[in-house]
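Protein record
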Amino acid sequence: MDDVRRRLAEERSTTLARLASLTADHDAVVAASLDTNADDEHDPEGATIAFERSQIGALARQVRHHLAEVDDAIERVDAGTYGVCERCGAPIGTDRLDALPAARFCIRCAAAG
């Protein structure tokens, strides 16, 4: 389990760095918007800035969700339930955990939705 814990810690660190980068990007877009006309509807740059802000916000939400999933996986490691499907109780395959270290479900349950 030490390898799993190390891998999840690395995933968490990478995710936090990505979130910091997105936050900096968002702050830069907001700062740039202060220098433009605030009327997004009539200012051609305003629509672009609003779109960029929206895109960065959506990416940041995805990254925050992934971070929560990684944190939950670390808790499952501590609880001794990591690698066990939360739906059927079967082991989650090694290949699946290699691809998605925070996976909660085996491939069969994940496919079933």
